[in-house]
């Protein structure tokens, strides 16, 4: 199953902002400066080539203006900052230069930078690895990039079956996986150097002070105070910022962290479709505090031409390195089309503090393969898994074992008990590889601040025993501490946060009813194999499939890769086989990874 494409043509098709930093063992290596230059015409002036970035290194950037690269460094995010303030240029440069100390833990994810060094160059990413960087050591060369696929283009490689199997069941990837053999995701806080065609990487050990758990009230007060400090500092420094508000708990925490007099001066926005309960609750909250509220709608997706819908999804897949659902991302891209570049405050990370994966009452038990198998079948491999029948018989029967082994190994590496390991897996795999991929795709376009990914906040969360995080008790308690009025307002399709924070008998009965309904829903979902499509996903997926049926060549010969069943593809094209949103998303990712140029598409 060979993966190969025309380097010049495909690099010219890239739609995302990004950069490659390559080093060669000797002049005239696998991809020299002359070959970089020959690709410039295909970029139509959107490429910056810096041959003198560092001794023996070449830097190529696409669709961005790397003004600082000529001074020997390149910031790979917009608006990097710590919990208390924006980072200066000197601080960015220093963070990517010192290989003997860990990257400053106070830098909020996402963060990454390239810096020229004596005889080579280096790169570093944030402690969570949220800003994705990729590395590859080739034959006489090596490279670091914001794009896995760009490194795969430099020298012929093959698909990584274990990674694709994991992606087809989880909807994202784990650990260092990418679609391509030999191309790996850089680890959290990793420091990477390239010089004379050789690549070295390590994660320096820091001097972090971790919080000790005293009691639930103490942890709640400290977490609430920290969130308030982070939010107030950011809005004070950036009054133009927008709060992304939903009907859920996480964004409400950030609203509660704002003093009431600050709320009226802060705008809010919600991504939604017409009739969304999420948008309705967000609008009521905004009105309550005299905040301007904007709904960025996905409704216009219905009017898209099928060819335009496919282009939108294929572009999203390339920006996301084929790693997560491109259809959900394309719907968001559509809604965000004219959103501008105002900095945003978002509630990502709250799920880490509420026992997201817990299937039973927390207790002291170890990680076992049986427990991982059960969690995978009931919780992980349900929402975004591509259906088995679309794959060849060989891959159909091997993909579950591939994916389960990858997940099991990630759990073992936590070296923690079962419930703590679930929290660690959610943060260091789900948040890291799913949410981090999405954040990385826009990291050079806009600033999005996630206060609950602050390292000190995560330290407090990690110190809290699982029994207090279960059923969102700890997280809801933080909201009560910040603003008890907001805590009494019901969530979307759920009771008020106060119900979760204060487990009275009446509240326990209400939560038992909610839990029972959720379990029933999971049982139905698992046995009916019905995926829950994202907002706008069903509309976009239907248009993409319509385009494939009209222009089958748009599939780009994907059957030849040996993963998909040819008969299933033929039945799908002849409208004899229905196709889910998850199956459509997987095929779009596969087309993007194989490298179909958009210029070959017909309208």
From TrEMBL:
Residues 226-304 form the Asparagine synthetase domain. This is Asparagine synthetase domain-containing protein. GO terms for molecular function: asparagine synthase (glutamine-hydrolyzing) activity. It comes from Gordonia rhizosphera NBRC 16068. One of its GO terms (biological process) is asparagine biosynthetic process. It holds the Pfam family Asn_synthase. InterPro entries: Asn_synthase (IPR001962), Rossmann-like_a/b/a_fold (IPR014729).
């Amino acid at each position: 199953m060979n993966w190969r494409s025309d380097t010049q043509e495909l690099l010219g098709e890239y739609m995302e902002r990004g950069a490659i930093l390559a080093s060669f063992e000797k002049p005239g290596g696998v991809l020299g400066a002359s070959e970089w230059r020959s690709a410039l015409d295909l970029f139509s002036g959107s490429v910056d080539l810096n041959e003198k970035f560092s001794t023996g290194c070449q830097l190529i950037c696409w669709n961005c203006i790397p003004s600082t690269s000529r001074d020997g460094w390149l910031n790979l995010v917009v608006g990097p900052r710590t919990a208390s303030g924006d980072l200066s240029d000197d601080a960015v440069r220093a963070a990517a230069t010192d290989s003997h100390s860990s990257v400053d833990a106070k830098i909020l994810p996402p963060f990454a930078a390239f810096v020229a060094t004596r005889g080579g160059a280096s790169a570093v990413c944030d402690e969570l690895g949220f800003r994705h960087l990729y590395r590859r050591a080739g034959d006489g060369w090596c490279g670091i990039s914001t794009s896995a696929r760009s490194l795969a283009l430099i020298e012929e490689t093959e698909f990584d079956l274990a990674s694709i199997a994991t992606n087809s069941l989880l909807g994202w990837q784990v650990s260092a996986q990418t679609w391509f053999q030999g191309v790996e995701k850089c680890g959290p806080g990793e420091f990477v150097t390239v010089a004379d065609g050789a690549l070295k990487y390590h994660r320096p050990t820091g001097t972090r002070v971790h919080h000790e758990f005293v009691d639930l009230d103490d942890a709640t007060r400290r977490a609430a105070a920290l969130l308030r400090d982070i939010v107030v500092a950011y809005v004070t420094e950036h009054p133009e910022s927008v709060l992304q508000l939903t009907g859920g708990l996480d964004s409400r925490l950030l609203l509660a962290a704002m003093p009431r007099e600050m709320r009226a001066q802060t705008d809010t926005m919600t991504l939604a479709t017409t009739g969304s309960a999420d948008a309705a609750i967000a609008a009521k909250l905004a009105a309550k505090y005299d905040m301007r509220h904007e709904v960025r709608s996905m409704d216009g997706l219905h009017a898209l031409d099928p060819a335009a819908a496919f282009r939108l999804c294929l572009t999203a897949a390339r920006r996301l390195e084929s790693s997560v659902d491109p259809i959900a991302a394309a719907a968001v891209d559509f809604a965000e089309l004219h959103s501008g570049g105002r900095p945003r405050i978002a509630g990502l990370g709250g799920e880490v503090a509420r026992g997201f994966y817990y299937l039973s009452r927390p207790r002291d038990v170890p990680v076992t393969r049986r427990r991982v198998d059960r969690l995978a079948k009931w919780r992980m491999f349900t929402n975004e898994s591509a259906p088995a029948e679309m794959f060849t018989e060989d891959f159909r029967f091997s993909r579950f074992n591939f994916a389960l082994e990858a997940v099991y190994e990630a759990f073992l590496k936590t070296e923690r008990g079962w419930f703590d390991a679930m929290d660690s897996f959610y943060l260091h795999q789900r948040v890291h590889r799913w949410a981090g991929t999405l954040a990385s795709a826009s990291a050079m376009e806009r600033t999005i601040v996630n206060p609950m990914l602050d390292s000190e906040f995560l330290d407090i969360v990690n110190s809290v025993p699982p029994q207090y995080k279960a059923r969102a008790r700890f997280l809801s308690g933080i909201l009560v501490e910040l603003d008890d009025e907001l805590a009494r307002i019901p969530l979307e399709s759920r009771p008020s946060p106060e119900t979760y924070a204060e487990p009275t008998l009446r509240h326990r009965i209400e939560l038992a009813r909610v839990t029972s309904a959720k379990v029933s829903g999971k049982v139905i979902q698992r046995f009916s194999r019905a995926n829950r499509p994202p907002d706008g996903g069903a509309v976009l997926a239907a248009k993409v499939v319509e385009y494939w049926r009209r222009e089958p060549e748009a599939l780009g010969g994907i059957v030849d890769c040996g993963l998909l069943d040819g008969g299933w593809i033929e039945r799908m094209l002849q409208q004899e086989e229905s196709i889910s949103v998850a199956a459509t998303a997987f095929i779009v990712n596969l087309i993007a990874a194989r490298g179909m140029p958009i210029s070959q598409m017909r309208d």
